[in-house]
């Protein structure tokens, strides 16, 4: 295993310290936790937003902490849910009196631990709501999930719910807006190479030199099909078709598109992928309001990409364009 | 070779089209060229700034085109200098009457072709100046270079010269500011895994499972030492020591730090690296004014990282913090 690290046991701790060292004016680590919060948390009179999950998906989630997006990110061990007490600390740290929304990716451990933390906070008089993101259309259930998995579409939930909260909306309103994004965002991914969880030291799965996997999850969970290597345009068509089967997008509909690299796929390839995706969207006469290309929800050094499509309405469009000032996402 | 592409011959063309498809309000491709310019180029009354070089270093260079940084980026084939006629087209497209500065990374082909383009433009009455970035302290000469190579420090030249031009400075002033950055910016890199140029289909070099290379260039040029795999803190120390040997930074000096991923090194590892770098800088009682962590000057899917240190003065500090609104770098 070739990694630029010091100690497998300290990797999350050192990453979090490396982040606060790099961004001391933006991020603050809650003492004795794996929680990074906005430097100025809690923001009084604003709904707090907490997300997080296993580490290894950077810049998710701490890269999205800041004005216009998240108030706190809770980091678990690599590909492992954070414990309820860590999430509970995050909730307490970001409650500015208007309650806290938890944005959870749909994995059994995350849902259980975030829910438990929410209950602990409610018992202390903090108003907590939650939403669960399940944008991955690849599989209905998986090794770590009941129902669909939450993947890169989560970043759009962070962005839009974050902007709604920044406007001063109530907890119920922010939750409703987040639910609206979740209902209208679908993703599908593929991989060319696996990644290696540091503590295990071995790749999570194997792919032959001429093979790719369609529908792989962001922890290397099995996808829907293992197939021969295909050109980007065929990959784009497969991902789009599966999403479209579910979304049934109509001519003229306004959408946002996110092309997400899984870790080691060069930006050059992601833009080639977008070239192929854009052609398909044009054939379907869809109105692309925004395209976001880069690494947002990674899987360590996995090679591959995912396509996310979000159906827009006027509110989502406005909130997507609203300011955000986080380490990884600014506008 | 596993890449998410359609056709090795079309990879740069499709990447550029994928970029303009994603960012139609920010970037415009000059017809029949590999040049991307600011949508609103030429900006009247502002010095135009042109950079570029071989492709495969994304987001460099087109990701840095926009207000506050570059006016145009010229893309060559992968790891191959663009031809003079392409650079000439870029110069003509961004001259707003105040002249054009070329920011060139020190590779023989780039220097020759950008210089020739500058002469072509001068012959047409456009005032052109140039600077050559040679921040890599690893080697004095290399297979592609006379003198030191230009690597990730180039991005700080883009940022600071771009901010100076945005202030309305003259061509001579922008050139002088850029020269000031170049004199005070040093970098050093290392790699864990090679990358594969699409047209060749084979890795540019090989490293055993327990080996790393110190001082590798961004095209996989040989470094200074091939050694056993070391922990991040030792790597950080080696890179810092070599830079410090050259810079002789004194206690209390203000610096900016850039930790650059070469392509497939996860952001998690880059932050672990920054954790180790920050400790060393603290031991030397250096004043870190700004730390930038991410992928800025990549080498396709090479694994590894580079450390860049820029010595600040009041002007460089102010210009580093000035607004920039490009696809890959915003503040």
TrEMBL record, chains A, B:
It catalyses: dihydroxyacetone + phosphoenolpyruvate = dihydroxyacetone phosphate + pyruvate. Keywords: Glycerol metabolism, Kinase, Transferase. It holds the Pfam family Dak1. Residues 7-329 form the DhaK domain. It is an enzyme of class 2 (transferase). GO terms for molecular function: glycerone kinase activity; phosphoenolpyruvate-glycerone phosphotransferase activity. One of its GO terms (cellular component) is cytosol. Its EC number is 2.7.1.121. Coiled coil: none annotated. SUPFAM superfamilies: DAK1/DegV-like (SSF82549). PROSITE patterns: DHAK. Homodimer. The dihydroxyacetone kinase complex is composed of a homodimer of DhaM, a homodimer of DhaK and the subunit DhaL. NCBIfam families: dhaK1. This is phosphoenolpyruvate--glycerone phosphotransferase. It comes from Alkalicoccus daliensis.
């Amino acid at each position: 295993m070739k990694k630029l690290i010091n100690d497998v046991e300290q990797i999350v701790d050192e990453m979090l310290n490396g982040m606060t060292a790099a961004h001391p004016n933006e991020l603050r680590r809650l003492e004795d936790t794996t929680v990074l919060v906005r430097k100025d948390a809690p923001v009084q009179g604003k709904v707090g937003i907490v997300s997080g999950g296993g580490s290894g998906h950077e810049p998710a989630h701490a890269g999205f902490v800041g004005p216009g997006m998240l108030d706190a990110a809770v980091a678990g061990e690599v590909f492992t849910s954070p414990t309820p007490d860590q999430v509970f600390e995050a909730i307490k740290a970001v409650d500015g009196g208007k309650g806290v929304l938890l944005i959870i990716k749909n994995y059994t451990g995350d849902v259980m631990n975030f829910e438990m933390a929410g209950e602990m906070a409610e018992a202390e008089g903090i108003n907590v709501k939650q939403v669960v993101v399940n944008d991955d259309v690849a599989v209905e259930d998986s090794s770590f999930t009941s129902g669909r998995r939450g993947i890169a579409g989560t970043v759009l939930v962070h962005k839009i719910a974050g902007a709604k909260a920044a406007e001063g909306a109530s907890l119920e309103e922010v939750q409703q807006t987040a639910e609206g994004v979740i209902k209208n965002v679908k993703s599908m991914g593929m991989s060319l190479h696996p990644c290696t969880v540091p503590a295990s030291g071995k790749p999570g799965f194997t792919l032959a030199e001429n093979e790719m996997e369609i529908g792989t999850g962001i922890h290397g969970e099995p996808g829907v099909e293992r197939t021969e290597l295909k050109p980007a345009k065929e990959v784009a068509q497969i991902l789009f078709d599966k999403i479209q089967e579910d979304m049934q997008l109509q001519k003229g509909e306004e959408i946002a598109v996110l092309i997400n690299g899984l870790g080691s796929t060069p930006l050059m390839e992601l833009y080639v992928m977008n070239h192929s995706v854009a052609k398909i969207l044009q054939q379907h006469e869809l109105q692309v309001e925004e395209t976001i290309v880069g690494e947002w929800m990674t899987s360590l050094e996995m090679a591959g990409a995912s396509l996310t499509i979000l159906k827009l309405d006027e509110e989502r469009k406005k909130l997507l364009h609203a300011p955000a000032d986080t380490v990884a996402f600014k506008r």
